[in-house]
TrEMBL record, chains A, B, C, D:
<dbReference type="Pfam" id="PF00793">
    <property type="entry name" value="DAHP_synth_1"/>
</dbReference>
<feature type="domain" description="DAHP synthetase I/KDSA">
    <location>
        <begin position="89"/>
        <end position="323"/>
    </location>
</feature>
<dbReference type="InterPro" id="IPR013785">
    <property type="entry name" value="Aldolase_TIM"/>
</dbReference>
<dbReference type="Pfam" id="PF18152">
    <property type="entry name" value="DAHP_snth_FXD"/>
</dbReference>
<dbReference type="InterPro" id="IPR041071">
    <property type="entry name" value="DAHP_snth_FXD"/>
</dbReference>
<feature type="domain" description="DAHP synthase ferredoxin-like">
    <location>
        <begin position="6"/>
        <end position="67"/>
    </location>
</feature>
<protein>
    <submittedName>
        <fullName>3-deoxy-D-arabino-heptulosonate 7-phosphate synthase</fullName>
    </submittedName>
</protein>
<keyword id="KW-0808">Transferase</keyword>
<dbReference type="GO" id="GO:0016740">
    <property type="term" value="F:transferase activity"/>
</dbReference>
<dbReference type="InterPro" id="IPR052899">
    <property type="entry name" value="Class-I_DAHP_synthase"/>
</dbReference>
<dbReference type="InterPro" id="IPR006218">
    <property type="entry name" value="DAHP1/KDSA"/>
</dbReference>
């Protein structure tokens, strides 16, 4: 839909429109209103360059496109029947719980093993544990390759899959070689298309899933879903969308909680949504309320920072990790609400 | 706390600080660190002009104040034991449900009477009905004084209190004269201090409550609580804080839902929080999920647009009003969750 | 333009569209694309209720309107040839400079008289002086009626028009009775439609102009221009748009400077734009750069806080008022740039 | 500075503070006010883990740090005397102009050569040309290695240095091997710390500079400066900060122009600031005003998209590239303003 600056275009102007869209196999259909004429693009309008060239014309105000740019992630794509599974849970049926350390302390492996056992006992289906950490401050602890062994040992001891963040090709290779079952793309790499392509290519044909965090700052849903399209495009559709709060944060929270985007994502894409309430609020005592709100909005799962002794943790754990006891209560309440709620489009939810 | 631009101030600079704070009955205490010295203000630091004058000094970077500016609304004020009551419900104990039309249609009073009866039947404790409406577009329907009679007749027929928005002194007088029990200050008037003062003065000593909506655009919590301080300052402490979503809206919602501020408000103020999910999301089919999320975050009540026949409504009703059947389901689910959840600081919520 | 959720609507669905738009004198024209059909509204589509009812249909995704809602403020309205004049300056020709106190100190009238004389000497065409002040904190100094006499005396002594903010009907009447030439609507009242209507009605037929500040928080241009439409609608078209920075502020500035909206406003409306750099940045030493940037973007004038002795000022003056010497330099540089720059659409600006 | 939730801490609570900060070589100094006691951290407080552990204590409200986390980028670091040079221009003395294509068209090398010659003629000191392009849509044109040869041929023909964006290690190696003089880190990789480290390590000891774009979404200044610290930390201090507008965009611009952060950056860091007005506004006809505003705010240079025939360009060029004639006029005006303005802290700017 081309919206011109003036109420009607001249014939030579319309010819310019025709010439441009013609190069992309489209044609122009004017819609003549009483006051104003607008110009529909008939054909496949998803050509970024075509739109840029149209918007570059001085008599064009803007071009609105109405087709989804997501061939694979779109709710109407053939993949819409695909179901992602993690740790024995089929997303979309049961509520998936992932829990564990923000950062594994390479000097205290037992803390991680204890947490892994405790969160399994509390009801978690997968264990999270940070091996490498992105830090705004270059002089902060950035993680340690040794933690990868600790992570996998935690997986073996519990029999549960593990999730860890990878930030570059080297970490990606190490994580896959070690057998990590869920690769996490962090909020700082949500627009790092080189990494998204590398991850997509590396997991093709492998029984591995990707937990894709939403970008750190408030962006569009299109941006979020496009990042997933980059990965799925290589053949492995096991991608999970993870809202985790955005910057700037609300007065008193670490981020601005964004579990409310869940219904909007679910209208556009078939991908499951697993919310991270820990980063959303950033303090342990707010986490249970945020987790429950995520389930209220229809989330398929929760990814929570938990630690047997938060004050001894590294990274964000001293602030935002809940104890296994809190986690157990939270899981119980979340499961009850998940069972009670039905489709957000029905009368009673 | 005065943070200077350089690591240490000279004695004449410190003397300037002393001279300014001395005028306001405060004194300066330097805190000498290894690298840097900062300067604490000892005494009552809540003088806006004192802070402006300190920040106006070229060697001062900024002044951080740590005392709450809210003498009455603060969680530690003597009013913290006050309980607001509406329609037989004590806020903080039971979940308050307010529901009804965005806008009363003066040509179709029966629609409002039917809605009033239906939302009472569904479980609502108070009826909302817009008499006068703020509109971005000056040529849109702005309401009608006749609707005030319809509103009060709805109150009489149901025996329930009614809520309506007032935007200026004339409307305030009319509403109070008619017997409106809950006055609403809308999101566009959240910083209209003249109106806040007029309302505070007018309700002093009267059995009337105020539903104070959060400002239309994302502002600070301080701004929201200060607006309430303006009202309470005149003697009637029956004020209710109402988050209703903020601008800019999330991709697909009318506003950015903000029920997540509830725990942050409750740490700062004793005032009850009643969330408006209808304006937050702006489309009827998203309302139940948002309402449930508000209860998950600890809201004391919900204010919901409902209509017996949404498509015949004026204002926002055709888009965002739920039917009485949806409302009844929503109330049932919300009450169950409200009963299940406990303090957000305990282990299990 | 009605965008449905599915690629094509059924005939009964299209009939529903036709029935609704028919009530408002419009008709539906389908535009059949290869993949999708959209539905144009032919006729005057500026009916808020029509749009709300269309968007309330479950098969409608959204409705895009392309007609300007501003009958009078629109760049294409008959008023586009109107020129606003203040203090002998025709806006759009010469650069208007307004300068003076944030707040007049009723106990020190001479400070204001000295500033008024000094800013006239520096080149200002109008004097600003706050009589009544909106404050987030209800216990801060809120202004004093006595200051109105001081303001007018400043006008008489300099022979220049004066600008002051009014926040309610009482202040409006006092200011007009005293002979204030420029009424200011502050950033906190940008959506206070009752006040906008009162001001519009009160100034009709009078030689008075309105300086309309942009809302305090980032809002749409439509919102800003609509506020002006409320005023002009009563017959006096002497309205000036005043960007003044928006909340949340940039790291280190009081607000987020927004002089960059000037070209966007000028494409939509004929109204002159006078930028307030003082509130935009909030500290005196940043003001000259911001003022110059405003002129770079095509502003028609500047409204600046200035004070002969900033540290003795009330309100924001100790922080953000520039001295007359700084003001004189700033005016010189701004006039040189204003003279040098030409239309932003030509090759060299 | 530790701000507790209550007015005073108990002795055991203070002991907990002491134990934590003691592990990091700091000590606690209480500051006793009339109403409240706060607790200063004496020593080097820049330990992220120490702060996280303090904030994890239930009786702590928040911890404010006042030391800059940027050892090298800080305005007070020893590097503050370092001057970055590009294309014969010493940043901080003369105004640097970089200009050229958003994207090089590998099928039409002559278009780039013509633009390179034309922007040199117009007064540019360096040529920009995109070889690889990040795209939200995975199916859009992503660039071509062949364009790297075209880029370098443009450099040889004009004798000017060239700038191009690299997004991963492979592109980094190719660009350095080819002899690219200015590496660009794009707005989508502003938080990609793996890439920042790879770039820092790769350029150490080489006569190469980095143009570091600000992140795509509004982030803090600290975040921006920290990204530069990652690079400089490896030994090559030739880093240039490039504001380029942030998301969400202003009504009608591609982004929200952010040249106004220039004075704030310059107070914190010694690094030069080169503004990109092309991405800030996103349409060619707004670029000259934005460029001039950047110079008004004290920018050290401009990075502008220019094209001999914008409508034949790829990527953003059809919309946002200016012609060489417009560029020449813009450079003339910008240089005049740059010469006229002086330090933003002096009276006349």
């Amino acid at each position: 839909m081309i919206l011109p600056k003036n109420n009607r275009l001249t014939e030579p102007e319309v010819d310019q429109l025709r010439a441009i869209v013609g190069e992309f196999g489209c044609r122009i259909q004017p819609i003549v209103g009483d006051v104003r004429t607008i110009y529909a693009i008939v054909g496949d309008e998803r050509h970024e360059l075509m739109i840029n060239r149209l918007e570059g014309l001085e008599f064009v105000d803007r071009v609105d496109t109405i087709q989804s740019p997501h061939k694979l992630m779109d709710i109407k794509s053939d993949l819409a029947r695909h179901r992602v599974k993690v740790g024995g849970v089929t997303l979309g049926q049961d509520l998936l719980i992932m829990a564990g350390h923000c950062t594994i302390d390479p000097k205290n492996p037992n803390l991680f093993y204890e947490t892994a056992a405790a969160v399994k006992e509390a009801g978690a289906h997968a264990i999270r544990g940070g091996v490498w950490k992105p830090r705004t401050n270059p002089y902060a602890f950035q993680g340690d390759n040794k933690s990868l062994d600790i992570l996998m040992e935690g997986s073996r001891r519990t029999g549960l899959p593990v999730d860890t963040e990878v930030m570059d090709e080297e970490q990606l290779k190490l994580a896959l070689a070690a057998g990590v079952q869920v690769l996490q793309i962090g909020a700082r790499n949500a627009l790092n298309y080189s990494l998204l392509r590398q991850v997509g290519a590396a997991i093709a044909g492998k029984p591995v899933a990707v937990l894709l965090k939403r970008g750190m700052h408030t962006g569009t849903l299109n941006e979020f879903i496009s990042a997933a399209e980059y990965i799925v495009n290589f053949g492995n559709p096991n991608v999970i969308l993870c809202p985790r709060g955005t910057q700037p944060g609300l007065d008193g929270y670490r981020n601005h909680p964004d579990e409310s985007i869940t219904p909007l994502l679910k209208e556009r894409t078939w991908a499951p949504v697993v919310v991270d309430p820990s980063h959303s609020v950033g303090k342990a005592h707010y986490v249970p309320a945020c987790a429950l709100a995520a389930v209220a909005y229809g989330a398929d799962g929760l990814c929570i920072e938990a630690h047997v002794e938060p004050s001894r943790g590294l990274g964000d754990d001293p602030k935002q990790a809940v104890t296994p006891a809190v986690l157990a209560g939270l899981i119980k309440d979340a499961k009850a609400l998940h069972a009670a709620r039905r489709s957000p489009r029905t009368a009673t939810l």
